[in-house]
Every structure is written in structure tokens, then in C-alpha cells.
Amino acid sequence: MVMGCLLRKRKPKNDQRPRDSDHNIHQFPAPAEPPEFQMRKGVAVRPEGWPSWLLEVAGNVIKDWKPRRANTFEKLDKIGQGTYSNVYKARDLITGKVVALKKVRFDNLEAETVRFIAREILVLRRLNHPNVIKLEGLVISRMSSSLYLVFEYMEHDLAGLAAFQSVKFTEPQVKCYMKQLLSGLEHCHNNGVLHRDIKCSNLLINNEGILKIADFGLASFFDPERRKPMTSRVVTLWYRPPELLLGVTYYGVGVDLWSAGCILAELLAGKPILRGRTEVEQLHKIFKLCGSPTEEYWKKSRLPNATLYKPQQPYKRCIVETFKDFPSPAISLVETLLAIDPDSRGTATTALNTEFFTAEPYACDPSRLPKFPPSKEMDIKLRDEAARRRQGLGVKPHSMGGNRRTRARDMVNRAVPAPEANAELQTNLDRLRITSDGKAKSKSEKFPPPHQDGAVGHPLDASQIGPISFDTSFNSSRRKKNKEEAHRASSRRFINVFFRSSIGWSMHFRFRRR
């Protein structure tokens, strides 16, 4: 099926262009349009085919490219959907290659949106590594004022694979995935790029087992020699390091390495290890697992009100006890990557040289990884929606990995669906509006749940009865109602040491509800 209203069925003969024999994606200059068409929908388009705003912010990195036309692609299926963008599986009609198209509208763009789109393009053009997603071109659809980012197509993401109940990754398989992840991060960091949203749903995998880091919508350039302040409102809550939760604005590669440590433990445990529902609860869970920060860390963190964030009772680090079933080299690497002090996490290079990768069993070859049908966040959502419909119709649902019925408590063990494609861009715009609007009641009222948001937490939902406990045997996750009050009391004691003014609107909203 051709791309809906984006593509015109017929074209005048004088608009037809011969196709180059080498089918190069960069060799198709768009013809100049009359002035009245260039300003259609208020978007200025230069004679070379690029919108003016894109040339102004990213002209240097696209100067050797020519925009492709939307009618040179055939849309096959929607594989991702977000507030601000959609992602399609498509076929390049010139080369016959299957690609992924990330569609972004650029009419009436706000300055913040332009900055995020341009920065993603700038970042992707700087990177070139087997374990980093490749930007293959840009497509302009001037009829609908849309910009498409053309990526290589990947059949899976790590969250989708982990959602299969029958899947239990072996140690060599975990090492294979982690080796590729850390290799990609090493390349990013060596080229001055922080990803700032590493999580399973942003790790794409093809049928050959190659893992590629994707979704650089929150990425930023950095220079360790000339540090500059950056926002702490990045990284999905479950994978966000403590320094960002504490509001640090000067940070580096440690934020990505913390997320990598969470993923390593998640692959070995079979489920996310730190599932907080708010920023305060997330910080509480981190301190309970990784221990309270030292006095030295509080002093050098340079937070204006660091003492306000200290728990009443210091916590002892218990990673070894919690993950006692992990292989010893894995525990050692998790200990390093989940260090409270980001300076103690090392680098991606040092992580790759640890015993976890140098000792047997070695990482398997990517080609030896198990094969699965296409598995992405949208596939998870569609399967879950179908299961809910079957339950509503009284049809007995079946698990993804066999004939066993999927119980509600077992669903917790599975990977949570990844955030919507490129939703972080719109989330940041929403956050900008909220912080500038004095009448806004709460950030929490505006944003999705923590696992669907690249930046913020979410208030306690009344539908969630009781806290989720973490079973160190990694065989199940249950709601322990008999410990509900004790857990809540502990959380209240932790929360009470914070001043409302230091927590922000999200916690103010929770205090008011209570």
C-alpha cells in the first residue's frame, strides 16, 4: 500500500525524473517548486528541497545529502506510534530494501521541537558503528509538511524478546547482548555523545542477532574537559541513575552506564530490578539496593540542599545478597555499574575488559542467538490487547510461550512495553509548558506512567493494590498484601524527610492527595 495521502497517485510528465542506475539514496535532488508552493502551510522550502528551518540548524551535516521524495517509498505497516511521531515499516521502491521511516511533522514547529529534531540528526550523522542505528537518509513530503528519518529496519527490540515467557537468556547470550550494548556505548562516548535513555525498548535487534542502540531523541553532545550544565530530566525512571534523581546537572558517561547495569541485571533476573512509581520511590529503591551515598559524595555532589535528600536511616548496600544467584563475574560488574558515585562506574571500555567478558563461558556469536518472530513494543501491546479482548469475551487466553494460562501476577514478570516512538520530544515540550505555566497543578497529571516516559515519574495509581515485592529467586513477582501497610509506612518515613519545595509539583500533588 502506498503512503496514504502523503503520496500523489499521478504526476505531470515534466515532474518525472530518471532513476540513477546505482540507486543511491542521496542522488535524487528534488526539483525546485514555484514560490507559492514553497511557502505552503507556512513552511519555507529552499530550492534544493530542504525546509529552511532544517538548513539553519543542521545545514552542515546534510549538505552532502539530497532529500528523497515520499513517493519513492511504499508504506507496509505501522510499527511504532507516539504523541509526536509515527514509525513505519516501508519498502524503498528504488532499491527494494525494507527500511524504517520515522515521520515527524514540521509545520508550525515550536523552537524546542526543532532543536530536538535537529540534534537527533546531528548526533546520528556523527556516529558510525555496527551497534548504533544508522540514519540512511531524509525524506521530505512537502504536501503534508512532514520529515521522514530513514533507518535500517530491525525486526526486534530487547524488550519485545524479553516479553516471551518461554525465553530465559543463557549466560553466553546475555554476554553477547551486553557486549554489543557496551561496544555501542563506547563508540558514542568516545565521540562525545550521551544517549540518556538507554533501556531495553531502545535496543533494536535484527534477525542476525546484531544489537543496535536506537532512539537518540534525548541524546546530547558532551565534552568531559569542558563540562556544561544539562537537564536532569532525562532517562526513563526505572533506568535513571541516582544523581539525576537528586537533580545533578553536571554529569557524564555514568548515566548511560547505570542504565546498562540495570539492563544487565534485568536480563539475568528476567525482569526489571528497580520499578519505582515516582521519583522519590525510585530513589528509595535505589538506596535500599545500592546503599546510601557516603558523606563524601553528598559534599562533592554540589546540590544546594543535599541534606534534604538524605534518608533518616542509612541503607546498607546489598547487591551481592540480592543477586546471589548471578554468576560471580556478573555480580562484580553489576556492583561496578550500579555504584552510587558515578565516578566509580568506570567507562564502557573498562566494563568490556572485566572478567564477565574475558572468562568462560564466553559471549556467543550473534548468529547463535535464538530466532523469534518480529517482537517489538507494538507487538507486545497488540498481544496484550488481544488477550484482554479474549478475557472480555470469556475466551481462555494462552501465554506467548506455551499453553499455560497467563495469570495476572505472571504478567508482572514480563517486560513492560517500551515507550511510544519518539514520545520524549513531545514530553519535553509538555514539561516546558508546565514549568512556564503557574497554574499547572502537577507534572504527574500530564505525563504517562514511569515505564512509558523518558523523563518523569507518576503518582500512585489507585488501581495498583499494594506494592510489588522483589523475589531474589527471580521466579515470581507478587503483590504481598499482608506487608502492604509496613511497606507504605517505610515509604512514608523516607518521604517525610523531604521538604515539599525540594520535591516539586509531582510530590506536592501526592501530599495533597494524602
UniProtKB/TrEMBL annotation:
GO terms for cellular component: cyclin-dependent protein kinase holoenzyme complex; nucleus. Belongs to the protein kinase superfamily. CMGC Ser/Thr protein kinase family. CDC2/CDKX subfamily. Transmembrane segments: none annotated. InterPro entries: CDK, Kinase-like_dom_sf, Prot_kinase_dom, Protein_kinase_ATP_BS, Ser/Thr_kinase_AS. One of its GO terms (biological process) is positive regulation of transcription elongation by RNA polymerase II. ATP binds at residue 102. Residues 73-357 form the Protein kinase domain. It comes from Buddleja alternifolia. Keywords: ATP-binding, Kinase, Nucleotide-binding, Serine/threonine-protein kinase, Transferase. This is Protein kinase domain-containing protein. Residues 13-25, 437-448 have a biased composition (Basic and acidic residues). Pfam families: Pkinase. Residues 1-34, 437-489 are annotated as: Disordered. GO terms for molecular function: ATP binding; RNA polymerase II CTD heptapeptide repeat kinase activity.
